Known about the structure:
Layout: H1 4-36, H2 42-69, H3 75-100, H4 103-107, H5 109-189, H6 193-212, E1 219-220, H7 221-239, E2 243-248, E3 257-258, H8 264-275, E4 282-291, E5 294-301, H9 319-331, E6 336-341, E7 348-355, E8 368-370
Parallel strand pairs: 2-4
Antiparallel strand pairs: 1-3, 2-8, 4-5, 5-7, 6-7
Helix pairs in contact: 1-2, 2-3, 2-5, 3-5, 5-6, 5-7, 5-9, 6-7
Amino acid sequence: MTGSAPGxxxxxxxxxxxxxxxxxxxxxxxxxxxxxxxxxxxxxxVISVLFGNVVGLTAMVGxxxxxxxxxxxxxxxxxxxLVLTLLSGAVLGSLAVLxxxxxxxxxxxxxxxxxxxxxxxxxxxxGSVVLGYEQMRLxxxxxxREMEEVRLVDARLREEAARAELAALxxxxxxxxxxxxxxxxxxxxxxxxxxxxxxxxxLADLFRYAxxxxxxxxxxxxxxxxxxxxxxxxxxxxxxxRLRVVWRVDxxxxxxxxxxxxxxxxxxxxxxxxLAPRARGGCIEVTTAVEGSTLRIDVLDDGVGLPDDGGPxxxxxxxxxxxxxxxxxxxxxxxxxxxxxxxDRAGTxxxxxxxxxxxxxxxxxxxxxxx
Length: 371
């Protein structure tokens, strides 16, 4: 199939050139007959059509077929060779027509020579025009190809940057999980072996997911929620009753695809900066909603609230800063991460907005699930 495409394209070009050249030759033959006043004679029309094809096909061979194959050669060789091709094609073709229809040769040799010269000049003129068009077309083709290569390189760099950000996030999360959870498991071994085993299994699942998402561009939000719930089980084993979690999940949001490891840092930020400093702990509330073409995720805590300047919590090298950079890589300006004071309560709200499309509910109505 691939091998026949160039042949089909050349065949189409040949048909178009023959048709256009024949029409041009026919028009010239009709004009000659009218101006001579002797009526339109069939031999004149046939010869005019043949001369038209001689000129047209010579221009096609020289400018459309030969020129692209000489683009890499020096101009001192390329253009003389093209001129020679156009002249020789026109002269030889005209002589061949005169050999088949020797009307001019029999009547007047000078007239036949004049016809050959005119055809040669026409071949040069038409060939030059077509050559100019082909040069512009090939330059445009090169430009479009270069633009596509730049676009592909940019896309590859953006993807590599996103993976690098994800790897940085993984490198930050993994030791944090590992050392804190090991301490918790150690303390549970003497009191509740089964709980320690379950916590160890949860930790293994979290590590497996954290490394698996490195090979994907996006994951369903349902997977992110399951991962985050595992993280919270570990934190609840550490904090006990000091950490309470409420989920308000819009069923339509579960199938929306989001960047991997985009939700857990929001809860880690709420637990670490909002609740951990308080002796009595507090509550984390997670709300997801699909509104038109936007997915909104709110993580609210009733902890100590934002520092006076607020902004430094989102900075490079930290979990929220990595998320902000990855959102810019994936979505440009169409996704945002914002920190603000929680409405109607003390604490902080982290709001994540991502572009999406409306999804049909796949589960029963949303629920409020304390855990």
